[in-house]
Amino acid sequence: MVICDLKDSARLEALHPLFKMAFDYLKSHNFLEMPLGKIEIKGDELFINNAESELRTKEAQQLEMHRRYIDIHVPLDGKEIIGWTPTADLDEADTTMPYDEAKDVAKSKGPVHTYFVVRPGQMVIDWPEDAHAPIIGEGKLRKAIVKIKL
Question: Which of 70, 81, 89, 112 could form a disulfide linkage to 148, CB 3.0–4.6 angstroms apart?
């Protein structure tokens, strides 16, 4: 997992061939003025979900894991709390949704090892080994969720 300011993204561009394209798109568009929904940039290899979600409590939110995609979470109009646990630390008995290949997601009730706050202008990069519980807080949140195929 990487947590940083979006303005510092240049040093991360070497980590994946599509990171530069994703970071450039994030920095050059105002997602608050764009309609909600999926934005295709490079087919299923790189797309962005421009979303608005009702934030949940820590207790109500589950960890999610992906195998085929890297997630980049970018809150747009408020702070977001995200929980994190290495997938290697999760017990299969805590699985609440087995891996769904079509949706590229599995879910677990945890436990969550740590929580952190992400604010507009910042981003979180989640790799497949990062189980994460996003959209925690109060109220609603607009955010961009970048999906990059491994």
Answer: 70
Q: How far is CA 102 from the centre of its chain?
A: 18
Whose tokens are 């961009």? That residue is: 144
Tell whether the model's pLDDT for residue 40 goes beyond 90.
yes
Closest CA to 96 of 61, 148, 137: 61
Starting at the edge strand found earlier in the chain, the sheet holding 80-86 runs 95-100, 105-108, 63-65, 130-136, 80-86, 114-118
pLDDT tens-place string over residues 43-86? 999 999 999 999 999 999 999 999 999 999 999 999 999 999 99
* DSSP labels, 16-43: STTHHHHHHHHHH--GGGSPSEEEEEET
The span from the CA of 36 to the CA of 38, in Å, is: 7
List beta partners, residue 49.
Answer: 38, 145
